[in-house]
Design goal:
- The two termini are 27 Å apart.
- The radius of gyration is 19 Å and the shape is flat.
- The chain has one domain.
- The protein is built from three helices and no strands.
- It is an all-alpha fold.
- One of its GO terms (cellular component) is plasma membrane.
- InterPro entries: ABC_BtuC-like, ABC_transptr_permease_BtuC.
- This is Ferrichrome transport system permease protein FhuG.
- Pfam families: FecCD.
Length: 67
């Protein structure tokens, strides 16, 4: 299902003119232009805390050990 929708999206995007393609591409995958270091400092504590939690529980989250 996902592959079908992706193929449809690729087909539609390839038919666009370059200006519209840039807008659609930026909308679908995002961009980091316009962001500042303030954005990094806002997200840094969240990323650090989640990284520590994941590191502490990495054995439980190991997909290979679930089999």
């Amino acid at each position: 299902m996902s592959a079908g929708f992706h193929a449809l999206q690729v087909l539609l995007v390839t038919r666009l003119d370059p200006n519209k393609f840039y807008l659609v591409n930026t909308w679908t995958i995002g961009t980091i232009s316009g962001n500042t270091w303030e954005h990094v400092w806002v997200l840094a504590p969240v990323v650090i805390v989640l990284s520590l939690i994941l590191y502490a529980r990495y054995m439980e989250l190991n997909l290979l050990s679930l089999a």
